Each structure stands twice: as C-alpha cells, then as structure tokens.
Amino acid sequence: MNRFVQTIKAIRDVLLIVLLFVSAISYHPTIINMSRIAGYESGTIMSRYIILLFGAVLFLSFNLRLVLKSKLIRTYLLWLFIICVVALIVQAFYDNNDMIHDLRSFIIVLGSIIIGYDLKLKRNGFALFVLVFCLTSLFSGIMQVLVNVGGFRITDQYLTDAKNSLGAMLATACFSLIYLYRSSKKSLFKVALFLGWGVTLIVIVTIRARMAIVALTLVGMYYYYLIKRNKNLLIAYLVIFVVVFFGLLFMPSSIVDYLDASFTAGTQGDDFTSGRLSTYLEALSFLATSPLLGNVMKINQIGWVHNYLLWNIYRFGLLFSFPIIVLFFLIFFNSLKQSLKCSPDGRECFAYVCLLIPFLISLAEPTFPFGPGTVTLFNFILLGMAEQKKLKNESISGL
Prior knowledge:
The protein contains 16 helices and no strands. By secondary structure, the chain is mainly alpha-helical. About 40% of the residues are buried.
C-alpha cells in the first residue's frame, strides 16, 4: 500500500510539473495566435489541457482529513461558501451572474492551495518545481518580445499579448530566481540564476508591465528588510521615496519625454495610469450615490475598473462584495504576518512574500490576485506548501 501511495504521489508530482509548463507556455505568441485563428475570445487552445491537468493533480492531491487540518483552508472554505450564497442571491434577485462567473477563480485558488498543502518536495524536487515555472515563463516572455516587439526595445505602443498576466508571472519568476540565488551554494548555478534574473527583468521592462515592475520592486525591498531586520532600512526607504518623488518633479523635460514614450504613450488614456484614474473617479462618483448596492443592477456602464477591490465594490456594492473583500484581506494579512515570523531563508517565507506580488498587482488590475485563470496558480500552490508544518524554517540551501 505504501508503494502504491508513493507511485500515485510521484505521478501527481510529474503531472504538476507538466501543468506548470503548460500554464506558462500558453502565453507563447504562437499558441496565442493559433487560439485567435481558432476563434477563441478568452483562454487559449491550451486551456482545456490546463483544466484537465489541474483536475488530475487536484484529484491525486485531495485528502479531506489532511485538508481540514489547515486553518487557512477551513477559513477559505467558509468564506467561499458565503460567496456562493451571496452569488446565488445576486443572481436570483438582481439577475446578475457576474459573481457566479467569478467563482471559477476562487475555486482554482482553493484547489491550488490544496495541491500545495499535500506536496512534500525535497530540495532538488522543490528547485525543479520552481525552475520549470521560471524558465517556461521566461521563454514565453522572450518569444513575445522577439515575435511581437521585434527585439529588446521599449516601444511607444503595447505589442505584447496578455501583457499584464504575463508580467505578473514574470515578476513572480524574477523574485523566485532571487530566492534560489540566495539559497544556492553552487557557484555555476548561482551565475546561471543571476543571468536568468537579469534577462527576466529586461523582459518585464521591455513589455512595459508597469504594475509588475512596481510590485517586484516593493516585494524586493520588503524581502531585503526581512533579511536585514534593520529598522533603519525603513527610514532609508522613506528617504529614497522622497528623493525619487522630487527627482521626478524636477526631472529635465528630455528625460520626461523619454519616460512618457516608454511607459505611457500609445496606451488607452492620456495620463500615466493609462486611463485608470478616470474610471476610478467614475466608479467612486457612482458609488457615492449607491454605496450599498453599487452597480448590481447594471444601470451604469463605465467598463473595467482596474482595481480589484474597487471593481468588486462597484459591481456588487458594499452589501454583496463584503465576503470577497474579507477573503482578500484575510489572505493578504495572513501572508504579511507569517512572512514576518519566519526565516527569510526558508521556503515558508519565500511563499508568503511571493504571494504579495499578485496582491500588489491587484491595485491596478481587476482580476488579480485570484486570477485570471491559472496565472496565480504557482503563487497559491506555494501558499499551500507554506501551510505545511513540515516545511517551516526549511530552506533549499545546498542545491
């Protein structure tokens, strides 16, 4: 029986590696172009295989007795149940099925946490798990740059497909490579990781995934603080912020024009937020007249509001969006709290800090951190792994 269980777990681990590979490779420009030719309006031709692989890995990982030991999973299940009830109420009384459609993302996140919670990867297995995600994401990113942009140059238009989703995956990969670099003791491996980190960073800048850059910068600064545990760093960060602010304020016009051409020109709006600020103001103006119900009756149309919390409050009002908001902050503050408790060299800390990336990106995107699709699959699998007591204070040093 023991051998049978080990075989099942080995099959599950292989399928998980394939799942990570397929999820990241689905952003390859060839896959996206083939999907457009096939008439796909959302997802890609790989979506069906991703769903099948995810279902298979989840089925082979599911252990009810083990799952219910996790306080985080129990809490998530409770709030997911509440969201389901609220979604049915919104559907029944207001003929609005938007929240029901969103349940898919919440279920994928729950499944990802459960998968991670059942994983017991050793050092080399964990390194392989991370590297497959990082290298496949980087490969898709490089091909997007070469095929759609034409090279590593910053253009005045967005030319990359699914830029924000790919940017989030690349930001996660970039931070993951930093962690592997710090944890490894092999010189050649460290050089390779450093080069990979550099290329990944260049790709993120080239495709102009601005919120991914911001999130990666903030997470990097936070992780460095966790390593040093020096309160003077907080003062230094404040000084840097002030210097950067006034530097931008008095920057020569030639540099301002370059930055404008690199990061804002050719986008949806005329301001540095690519039109996001105007939709924020429109959403807040509408909510001032209907704070409790928001736009649940769909009487106002302003398009996407690129902020996850504001988008949900706008769509469902404070009355119906509250379980989503609660779940959002429960996971965010849990990750923040736990990252402060554990060693920065351990997998647990890496997982909690890594999860902050999609949460920060959600400040300027409407689908993060619980989607879109399986974009945040890797982050939440790491969260599930961090919930394992056996992984506490472990590191992958000695790779």
